[in-house]
Amino acid sequence: MSEASAASAGVAEQLAAGRADVARACRVLAAEGLVSDILGHVSLRVDGRRMLIRARSASDPGLLLTRPEDVVLTDFDGEPAEELGDRQLPQELPIHGELLRLRPGDGAVVHAHPPDVVLCSVAGLPLRPVFGAFNIPAMRMAERGLPVFDYYGLVRTRERGEQMVAAMAGTRAVLLRGHGLTTAAPTLAGAVVAALNVNLLARMTAALAAAGCSAPEVPDADRAELPDLGGAFNDDLVWRHHVAKLAWRGLGLDAAEG
């Protein structure tokens, strides 16, 4: 095989692996209740101008059954880099394009519509650090503060995407008022786990509000003693667990899924 052929084969293999990972991420989010039906999307950076992103088609089985062929290659402006056939790019592609363009350190983006996140955003319920060792990364997210993008509509333009990125202010996540959430991280695992953690915070917040409770925040001294176990533990192990759980539930694409 020539050097050029080997390089081409390597790129094809990388794209195939990326499509499979984006498909798995969509299925994880659906299995955990963050997305439903056909709404929501995930993207993965390919390079400085292109990404793989979940699209829709006439045969779309929904997020829970996302297939690698539902993931397409496009640039950050939504210009396809391959033949789409009957697949259509998300209307809210600027969520992904602008985040990856403006935050070169991030490699993946999740946009989802968890009901508890929507509830908290419209009820004005802030996601506070009210638990500790139960989930340290989620507590740290709440401790740093989770911003809200105060716009109820679809993020369909580059300008809206830029506004959403500005609202994130360097954090991994932003709540979209009456809409859902967006997360971004250097890795796909990080972006997915961040979305799971935001959903957990919102679920706890909504439950406390329904119970009429006003829980105190974790004391500073206790927070200071909670360790940072690192991305390999906080993101990668959690991601692998959820991928393995897909296979256990019969939602894997092949025997190697777990």
Descriptive notes:
The protein has 258 residues and is an alpha+beta fold. It has a single domain (3-248), classed as L-fuculose-1-phosphate Aldolase (3-Layer(aba) Sandwich), CATH 3.40.225. It is built from eight helices and seven strands; from the N terminus they run H-E-E-E-H-E-H-H-E-H-E-E-H-H-H. It has helices at 3-31, 93-102, 115-123, 136-144, 158-168, 188-210, 220-225, 231-248; strands at residues 41-45, 50-54, 71-75, 108-112, 148-149, 173-176, 180-185. Strand 1 and strand 2 (50-54) form a beta hairpin.
Order of strands across the biggest sheet?
A: 3-2-1-4-7-6-5
Overall helicity: 40-55%
Q: How far apart lie the N and C ends? A: 32 Å
Number of strands: 7
What's the domain count? Answer: 1
Largest sheet: 7 strands, mixed
CATH architecture: 3-Layer(aba) Sandwich
- Order of helical and strand elements: HEEEHEHHEHEEHHH
CATH class equals Alpha Beta
- How big a fraction of the residues is strand? 5-15%
